Prior knowledge:
The chain is mainly beta. It has helices spanning 2-26, 149-155; strands at residues 32-42, 46-47, 58-62, 65-75, 80-87, 90-98, 105-112, 115-121, 129-147, 164-166, 169-181, 186-194, 198-203, 208-212, 216-225. The strands form 2 sheets. It has an 8-stranded antiparallel beta barrel. Strand 6 (90-98) and strand 7 (105-112) form a beta hairpin.
Amino acid sequence: MKNRFSTVSKMFVPMLAAAASTAASAQVAGTYSLAAAFNKITPHVESGDVSAPALPGTKADVGSDTEPLLIATYMISGHVSLEAAIGLPYKHDLTGAGAIAGTGKLGSTEVLPPTAFLQYRFFEANAVIRPFVGLGITYAYFRKETGSAQLTALINTGGPATTFRIDNKWAATPQIGIAAVLDRKWFASAAITKTYLKTAAHYSTGQSLDLRLNPISINMGIGYRF
């Protein structure tokens, strides 16, 4: 039994030491990395009421979407890093809520939410697994807002097709995550963020709707350190 344990130890101790050495060489000041990930954004909506004239309690909900994400990270020191994340536009459907719940799709919008983070990475630079926390700033850029026939029927009955736009906004985004060394250059990462985003929709009828979106994002990816 002792001989078997000794053999296993001789096999794995050098491997762990090599991985730790790899982590140290890859996470020191001045190094950078790129990661490709999939990111799911799920808004946690608190909707106001569509302004008059509208049925009291006319609200909206916003659906989730998943898209690829590119993440670039630069190590300022062994513990402090800068990260930038940007990807393809997310497409979100808007549906009726409150007094008009169950009425179906009201429209859709695309949003680009590029985000920059200042992060702190725990453990030493030679750790194989490193949790991290970050605080970021997000710019939510809405585009291609499209209203549905159902939206027109609800707030502009008998009138022309209703259109709308959503205000672009800056928002704070805290982050928690973890990175794990796979080999000399490659690593895996996962992170969760919440963006404190409040905006408003403005309709061609002159009505408006306040929306607190507060989306939670979950991403998982594979990266390469240079």
